[in-house]
Design brief:
Layout (H helix, E strand, L loop, with lengths): L19 H8 L1 E5 L11 E4 L4 E5 L9 E11 L2 E13 L2 E4 L8 E4 L2 E6 L5 E5 L1 E3 L7 E4 L2 E7 L6
Antiparallel strand pairs: 1-2, 1-12, 2-3, 3-4, 4-5, 5-8, 5-9, 6-7, 10-11, 11-12
């Protein structure tokens, strides 16, 4: 059965400062959904590496979420960003325990192990519509109309 993750992505062209070659350089780093401030944990976020690899992190505040990361390859082609999932990291096992509000909510999974699971072919392909934020900040891009903020230019600083 095919798994299609559709985060549709056509990169909007908003003048010469948002051309594809600038986006390729700009995209490398850590991008967090909704806010440029990183508290103790991240909301949904991406790490984009210069070698064409990415890691998508689910919301760290959701302590019941079993899928924690989606890893894969990305490429820019004619103003479109394509993401191909090659593996995911999941919580395996564990027990449901009372949480630690306000950090993790009323419930959380404890005593689990993390397991990386390879994506069975065909790989899941995402494509994300990227536009420049109306705010003048170069550290903000819209991924499917949702603002993502660059929190670090080095994706290895996760």
């Amino acid at each position: 059965m095919r798994t299609m993750l559709v985060l549709a992505a056509v990169v909007g062209f908003v003048g010469p400062c948002f051309a594809q070659h600038n986006l390729k350089d700009q995209i490398v780093g850590i991008w967090q959904e909704g806010d440029s401030v990183v508290a103790a944990m991240y909301t949904e976020s991406y790490q984009f590496f210069a070698n064409g690899k990415f890691v998508f992190h689910t919301n760290s505040f959701d302590a019941l979420e079993r899928i924690k990361e989606i890893k894969g390859d990305y490429r820019l082609n004619a103003d479109t960003l394509y993401l191909t999932a090659t593996s995911r990291v999941e919580l395996v096992g564990g027990t449901v325990q009372p949480g630690q509000p306000p950090v993790s909510g009323d419930w959380e999974i404890d005593d689990y192990t993390l397991k990386e699971i390879k994506q069975i072919p065909p790989p899941a392909v995402n494509y994300i519509i990227i536009e420049k934020c109306e705010k003048k900040s170069s550290n903000c891009l819209l991924f499917n109309k949702v603002p993502y903020y660059k929190t670090d230019s080095n994706p290895r600083n996760w």
